[in-house]
Design a protein that fits this description.
mainly alpha
């Protein structure tokens, strides 16, 4: 009887530190930065909109992004058992179906906050949440493709977050130049996410995930990532120049030249230097995002 009772006992409620680790706070920075760029690019004043901005930052980072991490970890628990066995779910610190429950709770809270902020933000939030589930969950599991997976992440982490920041500030649909720039930077993030896949090549091969480092090979995937990131920024520079935002155009050009200087080291040994380039090159990339946003907002 004692053995039966123990076997049917509900798994314990996860500790707060394990829930926080599941939500991966380090991943919140990109969408929160993109949200800030969106707010800046709008050129609107913060007067009377502080509550909306704070709620938007919460939505972009801890809520939508955190929820996407919980969804990903739940459906990737078998992959993580190979790549990252110390993660909360495969290690057993978040036991039973608690990983799924946390993802569902996060989805509901995200939708509620998006609804409170405004209709356009709700639309962006629902799209982001739908992609978060489609990215990791069957039957779609978009992350299985090295082409669609990074594209979805770029759209949600950068594009939708930027859109949300601009929409919060203007109370409606952002301007056409803002929409074009956020789409271009979202395309460039495809390259960043390809570099991020280098850390999980072994687990991806073992579980059938067709990331670009697996399907194209490490060297070709690295070249494609560099081309994608650079091409998007060249298009941004051209748009800024056409709109007579010369200081922004020169600034984005400068950070792109710095990325070109770092790329040979990455390409010399992509598997070894992808983490290094993610620290150096991606930092330059996001600084260029801010420079573009400042130009669109009329600050420089």
């Amino acid at each position: 009887m004692e053995r039966t009772a123990n076997s049917t006992r509900s798994p314990p409620i996860p500790a707060l530190r394990d829930v926080v680790q599941l939500l991966k706070p380090i991943t919140w920075f990109p969408p929160m930065w993109a949200f800030m760029c969106g707010a800046v690019s709008s050129g609107a004043s913060l007067d009377g909109r502080w509550w909306f901005v704070g709620a938007g930052v919460l939505l972009a980072g801890p809520l939508v992004c955190g929820t996407s991490q919980a969804v990903n970890d739940w459906f990737d628990r078998h992959v993580d058992a190979i790549n990252e066995p110390d993660r909360p779910i495969p290690s057993g610190r978040i036991a039973g179906r608690w990983g799924l429950y946390i993802a569902l709770i996060g989805t509901a809270l995200s939708a509620l906050v998006a609804w409170l902020i405004g209709p356009w933000v709700l639309v962006a939030g629902i799209i982001g949440l739908a992609f978060a589930w489609a990215y990791s969950a069957p039957p779609f599991r978009l992350k299985q493709s090295g082409w669609t997976g990074p594209a979805v992440v770029g759209l949600t982490y950068e594009g939708l977050s930027w859109f949300t920041g601009a929409s919060v500030m203007v109370g409606g649909l952002p301007s056409a130049p803002v929409l074009v720039v956020l789409v271009l930077y979202s395309i460039g993030v495809h390259g960043i996410m390809t570099l991020n896949d280098f850390k999980a090549v072994e687990g991806d091969r073992a579980t059938g995930l067709k990331s670009l480092p697996v399907t194209l090979g490490v060297a070709n995937a690295a070249r494609l990532a560099c081309f994608t990131m650079a091409g998007a920024q060249i298009a941004v520079i051209a748009l800024l120049w056409q709109c007579n935002m010369l200081i922004s155009a020169f600034t984005v050009g400068f950070v792109l030249i710095a990325q070109f200087a770092a790329m040979p080291r990455l390409l010399s040994n992509p598997a070894k230097f992808a983490p290094w380039y993610n620290g150096v090159g991606v930092t330059l990339y996001v600084l260029g995002m801010l420079a573009a946003a400042l130009g669109l907002g009329g600050y420089i």
